Amino acid sequence: MDRRVFIGTLTGGLLTAPLVAGAQRAPQIGYLSYGSAAESAARVRALRVGLRDHGYVEGQSIGLVFRWAERAERLPDLAADLVRLKVDLIFAPTSTEVDAARQATRTTVPIVFAGHADPEGLGHVASLARPGGNVTGLSVLLTEIVAKQLEIMKQALPQMKRIGVLATVTAPSHRPALHTVEVTAQRLGIQVLTLPVRTPEDLDGAFAMMVRERVNGFLALATPLIRTQRALLGTLSLKHRLAGMFGPKDNVEAGGLMSYFADLNDLHRRAATYIDKILKGAKPADLPVEQASKYELVINLKTAKAIGLTIPPSLLQRADEVIE
Asked: What is the enclosing helix (H) or strand (E) of 47?
C-alpha cells in the first residue's frame, strides 16, 4: 500500500473489517474534504449525529473513510482513491469537492453534498427538483447569500464606497457569485476590487493590495480555502484593520468581523438523511436538492473595537450571535 494512503487510513479514521455479523460488509461512506480533520471536526460530528439518528452505528453498521486534501489540486486524486476502494457513497460537502468526485465517478458511485453553492448553475444537477444523475444533497445558494452579505456590509459601513472581494479561483462557485456581487454592488453604489486567490500564500498579497487600493472593507466569498484559513484571515484582518464579511461563522470565531451564512452543522446533520435513503435503495437522480433553512448573522464586537469600528445598534439587534 502507498505510504500516504496507509498513513491517511490510520489518521483519517478508516473503518474497515466486516462490520456486521457474518461476511456481510457494512456500507462504507467516503468523506472527501478540502482541509484537515481538525478544521472540519464540528461538521464531522454533525454528520455522525445525523447517521446515529438514522440508526447507524459507526464501526458496526456503517464505516467512514476519510480523505483530506491540503490543496484543492489534490482532491481529484483522493476522490479516485475512494472509488478504487469501492466505497458505497462519497460525501463531498461543497462544490469544490463535488467537482473532484464527479471527475472520478459520474455514474457509478452516488455523491451527496451538504453545502453546495449552486448545484444547478454549475451543472452538477439537472435541476433542484430532479437532479438526474448521481449527485444530490443540500444547497446554500451562494448567489443569494452574497447579495445579502453585501447589503449587511453597507449597513455596518454606511460610507463604504469600495470593497475588496476575495474570490477563490479553485472553487467552481466563484464566478456566478462574483457576478452577483458586481450587480449588487452597482445597485448599492459600491466599487468592487476583485482579488483572485488560489492558495494560502496568496492571502497576504491580497490584503496588501486592498490596503494600497484603500478599500473600506472586504467580502470573503465562502469557499473551503477561506474556511480552512480562518486563523490567518483573522490575523490579517486585525493587522490591516479591515472590516470583513465572511460565510460560515468559523471565520468570525477566529477573529473576523462578521458572517452571514447557512448553519453548516445543521446541513451536515441533515445530509445523513440522503445517505440513509440512498443506502436503502433510493437513486440520487430522484432525490430533490433541499435548500438551507437556517441562516445566521454573527458579529464579533471584540474585532470591531480592535479595528476602530462602531457597529450600528440596529444591526446588533438583528444578529443571531454577538461575540464580545
From this structure: helix 41-53
